[in-house]
């Protein structure tokens, strides 16, 4: 069974991979059997690996973004809106 990861509007980047012929052949068959592409399969596997490695980092970053932590410049604390005001 292949699980899928839903990514929120992430731009794609083309990459070139060098895989043994048998690995690529099996990946194509697996992807076809699970109604997906080899690219989506590779992206899913990479995201799974990266998420495991950086799980705590992503969680902390998302928490900081949710809480709207202000930027500190010396003694002054700027909100995001203040920092980007023109």
TrEMBL record:
InterPro entries, alphabetized: DUF6364, Ribbon_hlx_hlx
Name of the protein in question: Antitoxin
